Please model this.
Amino acid sequence: MNKFEKSSIFVPKRKVRDKEKQRELLEYTENISGSQNLRKTVRLPEGESINEWLACNTVDFYNQINMIFGTINLYCDSQTCPSMTAGSKYEYLWATIVNEQKQFKKVSASEYIKNLMDWIQSLLDDEKTFSSQNDIPFPKNFYDIIKDIFKRLFRVYAHIFYHHYSLIVQLGFNEEFNTSFKHFIFFVEEFELMSTSEMQPLQELISSLLPKKKKKKKKKKRRSRSGKIKSTEEK
Ligand SMILES: [Zn+2]
Model:
């Protein structure tokens, strides 16, 4: 059993579109993980529907991150982390809709992460988005929804890396945490789920994880480096 599972105080939920299919896909992932090749793990299995694969992995990463945060959330509160930051340069505000207008609110990191997990869970529970019925198609904007989810899940890794990594090491979870993050980044890269600027808070770490990037992607990265460093982003 994964160490995170033992100490999780969250109860991760898994929405199952098709139990047999889910099991099959997860076994596929686990088998390849065993061969220590995370790059292969993230690739779309032959003959598999891309939306099904994105959905299955979204649920899996959501559960992983829930478990990871569950190991440290007693140490992340409004006193220790009064806002959702990734170091001193990046702060994320929580977006809410008030009178049909988007409003951004500064909340503690733990509140931000709770809101985020609730928001993802509501999408997973939404039959129009992640239907449990095989005959109901995925929505047309499914890829955009997935990108939104990954963009926001990334911020949880970033917050933990910047503010709680020593605790993760102390608890002896660093290997699992690093593998989870690496797997996440490989998946993001494989399906182009995030922009370079969105990944900027952990860019150095990502570069060290992914030393062999394609030339085309390097050029893209250089261009974006000229952009602003400090960013305040929405939810
Ligand atoms: Zn924190």
The two ends are 32 Å apart (CA to CA). The pocket of zinc ion is lined by residues 76, 80-81, 109, 159, 163-164 (CB under 6 Å). The longest strand covers residues 94-98. Residues 99 and 209 are 44 Å apart (CA to CA).
